[in-house]
Design goal:
There is one protein chain. By secondary structure, this protein is mostly helical. It has eight helices and no strands. The longest helix is centred in the middle third of the chain and has 23 residues, at about 40-65. The two termini are about 20 Å apart.
Length: about 150
Amino acid sequence: MRPFRLHVQLTTLLLLLFSLFGAPNAVAAEQSTVELSELSDQALHIKLVETALRYDFYNKRCRGISVSQEVNEVNRLFLKKYGLTVNNFIKQQIRTDPRDYQEQLKQALYAELAKMGGCDASKEQGMIARFQDDFRLLLRRAENSNWFPE
């Protein structure tokens, strides 16, 4: 197994474990912001894709919005900047099947939502605000990034 693919799988597993066993929300949000501001290059773009997918899954599950607005926005950026769609980016940079990757993220999000007590509880705990803030920060940083996928 390639080292980067192993890293992505371990990261996904850790996200699932944190969603099941939890980390204090304030600490997790603070750590998330610090980590996001430190990301660069490939890691920044992977986190952008992950955040866009999770945000869209949340919107579909909890808000009844079936249009993948954030993924479409990332698609526009990637097509304009790199000539890649999000699915091709997942295939080339994360080196996994896009459907499998998306399903893993969706299941991890749904487990996190269940642990939080559902959609209403997640909204009260600021999940949607974190998604919005994280997505905007990552998108802005990716737009200004000099990195180019090889």
